[in-house]
Amino acid sequence: xxxxxxxxxxxxxxxxxxxxxxxxxxxxxxxxxxxxxxxxxxxxxxxxxxxxxxxxxxxxxxxxxxxxxxxxxxxxxxxxxxxxxxxxxxxxxxxxxxxxxxxxxxxxxxxxxxxxxxxxxxxxxxxxxxxxxxxxxxxxxxxxxxxxxxxxxxxxxxxxxxxxxx
Length: 166
Description:
By secondary structure, the chain is an alpha/beta fold. It has one domain (28-164): Glutaredoxin. The protein has five helices and eight strands. The protein has helices spanning 2-24, 65-79, 95-104, 118-123, 151-164, and strands at residues 28-29, 34-36, 42-44, 52-58, 84-90, 110-113, 130-134, 139-145. The strands form two sheets. The protein has a six-stranded mixed sheet, covered by helices on one side. A two-stranded antiparallel sheet has the order 2-3. It is globular, with a radius of gyration of 19 Å. The relative contact order is 0.18.
């Protein structure tokens, strides 16, 4: 009887371990890129480990970004008190273009800059805008390329899921 109980425990542990491996399959750690803050100070993505993070790549010339930028800021305002951080990473080569865009779009989310495009290359960005939802452990869990109005529902569902995880 003791051996059967031990066997049952070992089987249960194996099932849990297998489930965790399957859950982790296909997940990728977010690259630890260094971006520029508004004053030029370096900001490492790893500085946000332990938080749920939405990293959005955008540019002033990107037509869908003009819609997604205020929508993501609204999501930030809604979920920031619950632990979400949003990093809006601007990819304009000329800072004045980003500054002109930002002057027309009030925002509270953190805006960072990558005029050389190192971060989108590290993330494998294929279109604009592209957003990555990163869990508290630094793993990319969800990716969104492009922007349509109905994607906000997906963001909210995914953010709530990640905020609810330990």
